[in-house]
Amino acid sequence: MTDPLSASHEAAGAREDAQVAGLLNWLSGAAILFLSGIGTKAWFAGHTLHAWVLWIFAVLVGLTIVQFSLTRNQPRQKASLIVIAALLFMYLVASGGESNTGPLWFYVFPPLLFFLTDLKTGTAVLLMCCLVAAIVFEFPQLPFVGAHYSYDFKIRFFATLAFESIFCFILEAGRLKARNELVELAATHEHAARTDELTGLSNRRDMQQRLAEEFSRYQRSGHHFSVVLIDLDLFKKINDVFGHDAGDSVLRQFSGVLSEVVRKTDSGARWGGEEFLLLLPNTSLLQALTLAERLRQRVASTSFVFRNQTLPVTLSAGVCSIANSATLADLLKQVDLHLYNAKQAGRNRIAPRVRQSEDGMTTST
Ligand SMILES: Nc1nc2c(ncn2[C@@H]2O[C@H](COP(=O)(O)OP(=O)(O)OP(=O)(O)O)[C@@H](O)[C@H]2O)c(=O)[nH]1
């Protein structure tokens, strides 16, 4: 049977992905504006090559937006942005940018890295870039290195960068911890709102949502589904004779049997007091009747025990397919009517009944 808790986690994950996608686009747009603007300034200051390099980086960032809109692959977009940012900062350190101010942009790198990737990868990339910066600082005669930095600048640059990186790391670790706790809490609350406390099955509210989703899927794709409305027989008697705790125990034991009998794709919910509703996707009326009958037999042959006393438990059920109903409300009305007929016919049975005709065809009445 489908698990309401994993559904809550999936919903939270999808919401977060959508938020990150929006933020990434905003960030990329801002980066393009900055790079184009500073490139233009460099152009007018006579630093033609520097201007072209910055514009090329602006185009590369633009390409990551195009890449994401075509593939919807967020991890790949993030990886591309990390590579672009690392190359840009390396270029700024090696060339010195305008008036040797290039390394100042390096301070943008730590928070950006921790936003784009996890703490471990972010730290690894940051250390690697710092190593390259240290080599550039130490060996200004290397090819592609056009900047010379003073000893004081180098010391202060690494000291402040180390301070900023550690600070960013601690903040990000705290943010992640708080975020995980919040996601867990939200999922727990959402799970509680969808679950019946006594049996652990979905509650009526969750089932109504599932029914609405399945009905719109049926309208779109034409895939049939069926429902089974189950009522435990003479349940009041169990409560009266054995006590309310015994009744609660029967409801829990029955839920266990129900979960064992139905398929993983089916959903079962506690519909009301001692009533349960099964939603069976891609299931015809006859298939649903077969499953309901199997469940009835299983319950009738199971020993429900409470404090060493065996309790008499049987069920009656109504079954209906969406193929025989115009609307969801009509489906629920019909299945309720079938349940009523099963009760009227003497309980411990399923309605409509299945008949084997002379030509071997199976029909329901
Ligand atoms: N122990 C327990 N009993 C419940 C719970 N919810 C509903 N009930 C009881 O279930 C009983 C249902 O009784 P009825 O509606 O008369 O139905 P029934 O005795 O099952 O008779 P039929 O449905 O006609 O077979 C009532 O006594 C309710 O109090 C619950 O959560 N725990």
TrEMBL record:
GO molecular function: diguanylate cyclase activity
Catalyzed reactions: 2 GTP = 3',3'-c-di-GMP + 2 diphosphate
Residues spanning the membrane: 23-44, 50-70, 79-96, 126-149
Enzyme class, first EC level, given as a word: transferase
Domain GGDEF: 223-355
EC number assigned by the record: 2.7.7.65
InterPro entries linked to this entry: Diguanylate_Cyclase (IPR050469), GGDEF_dom (IPR000160), MASE6 (IPR048435), Nucleotide_cyclase (IPR029787), Rev_trsase/Diguanyl_cyclase (IPR043128)
Presence of keyword S-adenosyl-L-methionine: no
Listed GO biological process terms: cell adhesion involved in single-species biofilm formation; negative regulation of bacterial-type flagellum-dependent cell motility
Keywords annotated in UniProt: Membrane, Transmembrane, Transmembrane helix
GO CC field: plasma membrane
Cofactor(s), names only, from the UniProt record: Mg(2+)
PANTHER family (UniProt xref): DIGUANYLATE CYCLASE DGCM-RELATED, REGULATORY COMPONENTS OF SENSORY TRANSDUCTION SYSTEM
Name of this protein: diguanylate cyclase
Annotated source species: Marinobacter santoriniensis NKSG1
